[in-house]
Specification:
With 452 residues, the protein is of the alpha/beta class. 53% of the residues lie in helices and 17% in strands. The chain folds into three domains: 144 residues, Rossmann fold (3-Layer(aba) Sandwich), CATH 3.40.50; 204 residues, no CATH class; 86 residues, Beta Barrel (Elongation Factor Tu (Ef-tu), domain 3), CATH 2.40.30. Strand 10, helix 20 and strand 11 form a beta-alpha-beta unit. Helix 3 runs parallel beside helix 7 and helix 19 crosses helix 20.
Amino acid sequence: MTSPRSTDQPAAPSAVACVSEHTDLPPLLTGWRRLWTRPALMPYVRLLVLVLAVDLVAAVALLPGTTTPARLDLTLTAAALNLGLAAVIRQQHVVNLLFRLATSAPVTWPLRVRASLAKVYHLGGIHAGAAIGATAWFLAFAATALSPAGRDALSGATLAVIVALAALLGTIAVLAIAPLRRRRHDLFEMSHRLGGWSTLGGFAVLTVLFARDLAPSDPWSAVLAAPATWVLVLVVVCVGLPWLHLRKVAVDVHTPSSHVAIVRLHHEPRTFVGSSTTIARHPLGQWHPFANLVTPSRPELRLAISRAGDWTGSFIDSPPTHVWVRGVPTAGAGNVGKLFRKVVWITTGSGIGPCLPSLLAGAPAHLVWVTRSPEATFGPGLVGEITDSLPDALVWDTRARGKPDLVALALDAVRTTGAEAVICISNRPTTFEVVEGLESRGIPAYGAIWDS
């Protein structure tokens, strides 16, 4: 099914031609400005490198010439501080606060400023950089502890805990490497959760043992005086808080096709445009975030889950009657649309889910939805809701019209609608292609960065 506007669109091949004919398109950037648009140099990566650079400078400035006890204390404290930063920047309430601050800028501010603020969702790079830094600092701590002078100062029990923690942190870091994480995401997730909990427990034990070894006359005063102790408390709060919101929620699952499930939750959290809810079939199983599909006309919480792996496939094939919900609705990339006077949403398949809250809430936006057999895949109810609310939307049926050039469609939509930015919700390769293709012409573009 296509909207009234889309029925008059040309076939897929001419979508590229019609855009290339326009002479008023923004020219391609050159030099460093063009280079910064590469996915390998996106703000997420730059923030990661910045955190590691700060750690490196600190190591070069502070470590040379220190005694073994001082080096042990310094490296353990630095590892704890990095671990704390990694936990805080991922805490749901902190994420929501940062998004609220970044997106509170009025649309009268210069576009360059608002476009930069919209990159707030790249702050996950701080988490990755701090996590790598924590691992590196702890390995330095372990190397010092296992040196002859370190072995003389520490007990066998302390050394055993240090070795176990070093091995655990190293394993978590290896499984978090992007290519391995994408291939074995389930293993990555379990290692992060169970390994993270084990790391916190190990750090708590190590803090006490370390203080006992270095200050045997008054170990508890040493524990309370250690910065690592209070960082550990902060990390425990950040990690534990979402679990205080754990609840089992009844759901109704509608599967219009074998590709997608529309899930209605009998649960009414305080959702907002551009937020997601994290669900699981079992509290100790896999947790997955899905965009909240909320509309003013239907005061209920819905999620669109597409087949994208074993977990989602099982969910669609064997729909549950209940799911577990953890934490609070959390802001994501789609939340940044409020920074712009008008936004073009480019989406494929079930990526329509994260778009709908903004679109159906009446935000000034234009939709380009590229999908296969919309009604057969998503059901006439959802497609009708979209086309009734957005009569100017372009719904491109790839089964009938083939696959279009999404960058060309986005450029044409920006030119014809006067939009200030583009948000792309699609798979990883397509999102990176669209975002880079637009940013290389100086058009603000945003999309998920797959950092978890």
